[in-house]
Write a structure and sequence with these properties.
This protein is mainly alpha-helical and about 100 residues long. The chain has helices at about 10-25, 30-40, 55, 65-80, 85-100.
Length: about 100
């Protein structure tokens, strides 16, 4: 016998997850089934659940001024060498790929 689980999610989240899982070769229903299978196999969440610390949201806070300047200089060198892209083009590519 099979049971049905109904979950309400935001339309945008559903659309994005459908696109993501399709790109991964599956569908959202199968992904949820995989999640439940792994939760049972792990006797808990199949990934770490934790509160993010501030450094994950502000990664440059822990950098010294010298480290920050060095990183900025490397970025400038990349641009001078043609190893950069305009932000508008990156955003356009992301929107096209993920249907944003």
């Amino acid at each position: 016998m099979a049971s049905t689980i109904q979950v309400r999610v935001d339309d945008d989240l559903k659309r994005k997850s459908d696109i993501l899982f399709k790109d991964l070769g599956t569908d959202t229903t199968s992904a949820i089934r995989m999640f439940l299978t792994q939760a049972v196999a792990n006797n808990g969440f199949p990934f770490e659940i934790r509160k993010n610390d501030r450094t994950e949201y502000y990664p440059y806070e822990i950098m010294t001024e010298e480290e920050m300047l060095a990183k900025l200089n490397r970025s400038r060198e990349h641009c001078q060498d043609g190893r950069c892209r305009e932000a508008d083009k990156v955003v356009s590519d992301l929107r096209g790929k993920y249907g944003l």
